[in-house]
């Protein structure tokens, strides 16, 4: 019997090894000249996906021009501002360009390039708002986006003008909070705000830009100094040869690049974003399938460890379930994506990190109901089987599991649906699944309500299909 | 002749609760021993330690010369020779009647499928249920289930059978069929240890009756000695209660 446990345990270890091997295998060998650069997904006109799903904006074009000038390659990873900050700090990314203001605080952990853009913070309100100056803000709420200089500015004058700050992760959510009247005003960099207004966001700018820290390209303090030097040299070249002026004019000029012309009906939005939505849909489905597979293997093994007659394995099972069920999915995802690389010095692709996250989290829930399902089988069944001389493993396989699985099937279907929904949380580490795709589209066209409606419908369709499939399998299996 | 079953100084505790307090018991080949005693006295616990469904706390249990209290003994091998019948039948709900009976012989490679099926048919006939070969467990009455359970226990050709109140979960009209099967087994010379409240069965079939109370064997003897001339006041008290209802 001992050997059975040993092989069960070996299987578990092998699974873990496999996942790590997979992660190591997918990690691209760091080519000499290709740098991984993080950026925000939703900061037009500095970075955003255009209607052909290509990343454009001042930061992106400038960085690409500099790279070409200096002879290196960049691979641009749109995560989120905060996600990029953490990924650079953990070594997952080599640098970031994301409309990032150079501040004393950030200089403690980042090395910045020479400033490449000087911006200023403005205040925006609804068109017929009575709030027209900072003085009118007393006692009211002000919306800001995390990590922006607008947020820093709001904090610096909060005491003086006596308002409350509400923080958002996405620009569109911040604008919506003002439009719906929850907040009286928002603060944002002037070019960003102007872009939003041009896109049809129902806000108006009521203050003059207040100068704040200029934008810089950032690397982790003490790392990638060569990249930083090349950026500075390239920037000087761009300013000298007029390319810099061309790029900024393209996005900031009176007619600057915008997307207002296109059809803003539901159908129009679907047509314009068809390939992006399809890509996000595929990623979500793929992530769900891979995650369900690994979570089921992990969950069944851990669940079985919880019922074998061995105190050590029972304890191990309980502990694993306790830890991974206890951690919020978001925390686990960030921990695995940014925490593990800083410990091991090994980059993990977001997809692998996401799969591992779901494997542990959903797997813990599966383990709990596998254990519960087995324990729900009357103890007399096991006793009768053992009294005939059947060893534990045979009794489990022939008598207990077939009955337990029947009890577990509804829980499995439920967990698969939850897994599908939970993939959306992985947008935090920049996986381009459906939710992240939605954020990116909204960052460009600021049609939050319509795009989220489309995304919600797609999720419901997939969930319906998954439920049908599960029910079909359930009828087929008929254990 | 050495005893088939030899229990020496058997103690079993659950936490602080000492349920068996040093039991000594010998059962000879072909002997039918009926165990009686009040509820909670430890009858089931005694029976369940005999095939190690409960591990003994101390003492020795020797069956066919093998000490099952010894951790080195392969308990699965010993169990193949000890059939057990439970109060609540415990038929495998996911298997049909015949599969219930054939499972152990086939899984443990005692018989191939064909032979096991033939054997199952014969066993079902001896318990009067040959027509139920392909039936599901759920379609059987309690009495039928218990008879299938007996057939299942016999499928491994055990040389000792343990019965733990095999009729107490049955409707009265079903009890007779099950007892008849057990009487038949006894007649064929099966070594049996039976926990039961069926005093009629004890009087008629038992070679020896054992009275357990408070974790000890208080008195034992032939049915005549036990039922007609009980010495121990506890036994007299117990018989008063069960016989005069
Ligand atoms: N698994 C267990 N854990 C803890 N205590 C137990 C366990 N099994 C039995 N006991 C206790 O041991 C004592 C004897 O129980 P046992 O089932 O052997 O009695 P019994 O003589 O078979 O009674 P009945 O006639 O009601 O079946 C009881 O006090 C019971 O609560
Ligand atoms: Mg009992």
TrEMBL record, chain A:
<dbReference type="InterPro" id="IPR000515">
    <property type="entry name" value="MetI-like"/>
</dbReference>
<keyword id="KW-0812">Transmembrane</keyword>
<dbReference type="Pfam" id="PF00528">
    <property type="entry name" value="BPD_transp_1"/>
</dbReference>
<dbReference type="GO" id="GO:0043190">
    <property type="term" value="C:ATP-binding cassette (ABC) transporter complex"/>
</dbReference>
<dbReference type="InterPro" id="IPR001638">
    <property type="entry name" value="Solute-binding_3/MltF_N"/>
</dbReference>
<dbReference type="GO" id="GO:0006865">
    <property type="term" value="P:amino acid transport"/>
</dbReference>
<keyword id="KW-0472">Membrane</keyword>
<feature type="transmembrane region" description="Helical">
    <location>
        <begin position="320"/>
        <end position="340"/>
    </location>
</feature>
<comment type="similarity">
    <text>Belongs to the binding-protein-dependent transport system permease family.</text>
</comment>
<dbReference type="InterPro" id="IPR001320">
    <property type="entry name" value="Iontro_rcpt_C"/>
</dbReference>
<feature type="signal peptide">
    <location>
        <begin position="1"/>
        <end position="31"/>
    </location>
</feature>
<dbReference type="InterPro" id="IPR035906">
    <property type="entry name" value="MetI-like_sf"/>
</dbReference>
<dbReference type="InterPro" id="IPR010065">
    <property type="entry name" value="AA_ABC_transptr_permease_3TM"/>
</dbReference>
<protein>
    <submittedName>
        <fullName>ABC transporter permease subunit</fullName>
    </submittedName>
</protein>
<keyword id="KW-1133">Transmembrane helix</keyword>
<keyword id="KW-0732">Signal</keyword>
<dbReference type="Pfam" id="PF00497">
    <property type="entry name" value="SBP_bac_3"/>
</dbReference>
<feature type="domain" description="ABC transmembrane type-1">
    <location>
        <begin position="281"/>
        <end position="470"/>
    </location>
</feature>
<keyword id="KW-0813">Transport</keyword>
<keyword id="KW-1003">Cell membrane</keyword>
<dbReference type="GO" id="GO:0015276">
    <property type="term" value="F:ligand-gated monoatomic ion channel activity"/>
</dbReference>
<dbReference type="InterPro" id="IPR043429">
    <property type="entry name" value="ArtM/GltK/GlnP/TcyL/YhdX-like"/>
</dbReference>
Automatic annotation (TrEMBL), chain B:
<keyword id="KW-0067">ATP-binding</keyword>
<dbReference type="InterPro" id="IPR050086">
    <property type="entry name" value="MetN_ABC_transporter-like"/>
</dbReference>
<dbReference type="GO" id="GO:0005524">
    <property type="term" value="F:ATP binding"/>
</dbReference>
<dbReference type="InterPro" id="IPR030679">
    <property type="entry name" value="ABC_ATPase_HisP-typ"/>
</dbReference>
<keyword id="KW-0547">Nucleotide-binding</keyword>
<dbReference type="InterPro" id="IPR017871">
    <property type="entry name" value="ABC_transporter-like_CS"/>
</dbReference>
<dbReference type="GO" id="GO:0016887">
    <property type="term" value="F:ATP hydrolysis activity"/>
</dbReference>
<protein>
    <submittedName>
        <fullName>ATP-binding cassette domain-containing protein</fullName>
    </submittedName>
</protein>
<dbReference type="InterPro" id="IPR003439">
    <property type="entry name" value="ABC_transporter-like_ATP-bd"/>
</dbReference>
<dbReference type="InterPro" id="IPR003593">
    <property type="entry name" value="AAA+_ATPase"/>
</dbReference>
<dbReference type="GO" id="GO:0015424">
    <property type="term" value="F:ABC-type amino acid transporter activity"/>
</dbReference>
<dbReference type="Pfam" id="PF00005">
    <property type="entry name" value="ABC_tran"/>
</dbReference>
<keyword id="KW-0813">Transport</keyword>
<feature type="domain" description="ABC transporter">
    <location>
        <begin position="5"/>
        <end position="239"/>
    </location>
</feature>
<dbReference type="InterPro" id="IPR027417">
    <property type="entry name" value="P-loop_NTPase"/>
</dbReference>
